[in-house]
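wait is this the right file?? whatever heres the structure
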């Protein structure tokens, strides 16, 4: 077994490229936060309502016993929100605390995320402020939480492939996933889970490729704990983290002494103990009370099938394919406005074809692909099982769980990067593919923003009318001036970043890597 993988330190050009991609990503999300009408993000009204319950001093209820505030539902108009002049304060929409019969499903999660957002609102003295202003601040808090995502993707891919340019290109791919931009710019419990999943990916890749520091193991366990403190979806990272530790490279002394198995098991226990001690009590209590670590907030519904009819596997497979790909890449609004099938299907087929092709190639690091790929595969298996059970019991098929893959997005990009690096060996072709990302990503981002505008303000007519512009102006919580500043900054940062990356990708001065078979270095900060 070889020693730890070592990569040359990042150059100034590489760090500037990463900074440009990260800044563009943050500004894109901030633009989404400004343009998307308040409460119109995926499950955003439910998330905001949960925050308002804690802000109002209500205790966190048992699963299934959280109900929407009536005043919030009155503002949450699906067709078009009231103009800014008719939006009252937070205190006004809470009112006397009257609740609707409609259940809020957020009670199935721990209150951690909602408590943090409630603390932010409390610091702003939110009661006297207009409710859409408070929602905008909550959105911007989520944007700040999402800010490290490009750097985490870059660090993960760079560690796994030892290719600085490929790592920056992988980070730029995030700009071409509109659904992530919408979720990351909304008030959503998924935001910290996404970042925690990316952090877990980077740390697990470090451990797998030879980082033997116990601090890295503790940090890996801590990143999993951050995810589980917010949602049970954080547990999806556990199988991948454990396999990465079990299959990771150890110190030569441990391997020679015969303590290999004991050391690996001990390191796995460290990773498990951190989330078990810090957040496991919540899910244990839920299991004792309800028989499930994450009970369903809605009462069970089961419709018997007509005699002689059973589930249609082909129909389910088609619905699952379309639903997962749409809701991962771009099913905007409240999972109601899909991107063009040309974009979605092309991206999905190309990505899967590369993985299948790489799996049959000996030039590809298939061991790393298998270990890191366990994260998204775990997600797909869980979602497939859940949706199949729902289909069998409810007759209908509704698949909108593409967001479940977002915590594993860094792992997905690592696997794709390894596949493309092994399949494409000519430097000129690699440069063209990296530059293609710079062309495709802004086109997809602009198309998605155009779809959001046309669906929200033009009745799904692809035009820019006077009535649509007026509807947009009267919807913006911070006004048209703030949107103009954001759009200007996005252009000022994004365009020079794209030009600089175009030139950098083509330069023949790749970072020289240190041979992998050098004597193992105890330091892990490389």
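ok assuming it is, sequence goes like this
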């Amino acid at each position: 077994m070889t020693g730890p993988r070592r990569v040359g330190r990042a150059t100034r050009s590489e760090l500037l490229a990463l900074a440009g991609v990260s800044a563009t990503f943050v500004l894109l999300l901030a633009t989404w936060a400004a343009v998307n009408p308040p409460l119109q993000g995926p499950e955003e009204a439910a998330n905001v309502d949960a925050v308002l319950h804690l802000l109002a001093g209500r205790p966190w209820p048992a699963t299934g016993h959280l109900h929407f505030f009536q005043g919030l539902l009155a503002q949450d108009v699906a067709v078009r929100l009231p103009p800014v002049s008719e939006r009252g304060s937070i205190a006004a929409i809470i009112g006397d605390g009257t609740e609707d019969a409609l259940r809020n499903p957020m009670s199935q999660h721990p209150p951690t995320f909602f408590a943090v957002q409630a603390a932010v609102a409390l610091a702003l003295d939110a009661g006297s402020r207009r409710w859409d202003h408070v929602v905008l601040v909550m959105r911007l808090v989520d944007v700040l939480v999402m800010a490290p995502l490009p750097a985490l993707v870059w660090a993960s891919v760079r560690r796994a492939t030892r290719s600085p340019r490929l790592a920056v290109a992988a980070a730029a791919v995030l700009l071409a996933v509109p659904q992530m931009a919408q979720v990351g710019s909304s008030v959503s419990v998924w935001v910290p889970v996404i970042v925690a999943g990316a952090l877990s990916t980077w740390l697990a890749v470090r451990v797998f490729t030879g980082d033997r520091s116990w601090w890295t193991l503790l940090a890996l366990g801590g990143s999993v704990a951050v995810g589980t403190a917010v949602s049970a979806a954080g547990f999806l990272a556990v199988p991948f983290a454990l396999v990465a530790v079990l299959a990771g490279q150890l110190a030569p002394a441990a391997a020679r002494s015969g303590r290999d198995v004991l050391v690996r098991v001990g390191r796995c226990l460290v990773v498990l103990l951190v989330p078990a001690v810090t957040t496991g009590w919540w899910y244990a209590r839920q299991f004792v009370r309800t028989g499930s670590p994450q009970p369903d907030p809605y009462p069970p519904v089961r419709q018997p099938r007509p005699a002689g009819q059973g589930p249609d596997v082909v129909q389910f497979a088609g619905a699952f394919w379309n639903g997962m790909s749409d809701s991962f890449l771009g099913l905007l609004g409240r999972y109601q406005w899909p991107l063009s099938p040309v974009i979605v299907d092309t991206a999905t087929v190309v990505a899967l074809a590369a993985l299948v092709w790489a799996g049959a190639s000996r030039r590809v690091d298939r061991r790393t692909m298998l270990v890191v790929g366990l994260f998204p595969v775990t997600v797909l298996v869980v979602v497939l099982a859940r949706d199949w059970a729902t289909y069998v019991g409810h007759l209908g098929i509704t698949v909108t769980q593409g967001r479940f893959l977002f915590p594993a997005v860094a792992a997905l990009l690592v696997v794709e990067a390894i596949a493309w690096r092994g399949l494409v060996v000519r430097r000129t072709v690699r440069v063209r593919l990296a530059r293609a990302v710079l062309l495709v990503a802004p086109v997809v981002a602009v198309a998605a923003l155009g779809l959001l505008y046309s669906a929200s303000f033009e009745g799904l007519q692809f035009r820019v009318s006077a009535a649509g512009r007026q509807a947009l102006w009267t919807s913006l919580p911070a006004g048209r001036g703030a949107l103009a500043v954001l759009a200007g900054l996005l252009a000022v940062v994004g365009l020079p970043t794209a030009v600089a990356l175009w030139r950098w990708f083509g330069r023949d001065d790749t970072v020289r890597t240190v041979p992998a078979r050098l004597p193992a270095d105890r330091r892990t900060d490389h």
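The first helix runs from residue 12 to 35. so i think its the right one actually
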